[in-house]
Amino acid sequence: MDYIVYACPHCRALNKLPKKDSYKKAVCGKCGGNLLENKPISLDNYDEFQKITSSVTVPVIIDFWAEWCGPCQMFAPIFANTAKNYPLKAQFVKVDTDKNQQAAMQFGIRSIPTIVALKDGKEIDRVMGALPEPSFAMWADKIIEN
Asked: For residue 3, what is the DSSP state?
């Protein structure tokens, strides 16, 4: 049977689950949190960022942002709302470039917001700027379906 590895949005513990087209219920083995409640995980610690982005087997969609950035603030609810549509299909991650400069340097982030998609720990696509919700949802669909 195929499995996916997914980080709990509540406690960040890695969970191994049987791969299915849809899930009625999925709970974290560590904290008991609902894994279907797909919300972005803030990864401001580089070691934790490395662990999750290299271990998760579904696409990882990263929002590189900063607190002082107006377009980043405008895009944040769009990112969070879109994440809700992909439970266990993609891991949504937020990286504050001021707090996790190593991750920003690793991906050569020069402007924010920048959204990077990873598959199997490798970058497969990126977009720069705050996208409107329909455009971001179409981009996320393309990432997740491939």
From this structure: E
Which is the catalytic residue, given 8, 11, 31, 72? 72
Q: Tell me which architecture the domain covering 37-145 has in CATH.
A: 3-Layer(aba) Sandwich (3.40)
Domain boundary assignment for the chain: 37-145
Asked if 143 and 117 touch (Cβ cutoff 8 Å), the reply is yes
pLDDT tens for residues 75-132? Answer: 999 999 999 999 999 999 999 999 999 999 999 999 999 999 999 999 999 999 999 9
Judged on CB neighbours under 10 Å (0-12, 13-18, 19+), 100 is: buried
Of the chain, the percentage scoring pLDDT greater than 90 comes to 94
69: annotated active-site residue: yes
Which residue of the set 8, 28, 31, 69 is catalytic? Answer: 69
- Model pLDDT, residue 22: 86
Report if pTM > 0.90. Answer: yes
Q: Is 8 a catalytic residue?
A: no
